[in-house]
Amino acid sequence: MGTVRIRPFAKQNKVQTIEDLIREGRIAGIPFFDIYSYTQGEIQEFVEAKNEADRRDLKMQAVVASRHAMLVSANVAGADAGKIYEVFPFWTNEEINEFRLAEVYSFFQRNANC
Fold this sequence. Notes:
By secondary structure, the protein is mostly helical. The protein has helices at residues 18-28, 40-77, 84-87, 93-112; strands at 3-4, 16-17.
């Protein structure tokens, strides 16, 4: 088969074969029997989109891991780390309101039993 320059390998600065492109498409998740009905551009776009999705996912995992480390270290030091929904801003307003409602409810339950 012929050679083609594709962008997923552009950082390597070398020309890749169609077999390499198909291999990258398979690694990215294109089903075996479907990959031969894709054009080169579609495979390339799929691979780039998958790589970008993976990059964003790993970036989010790194953010969560660093904030988790911050919470653990604050807890070990005895400092107030703040509310979970303030440290991890991934919550919707509805979920935050549910957390606040649960806090108020537990406060009243504790004080009503005194």
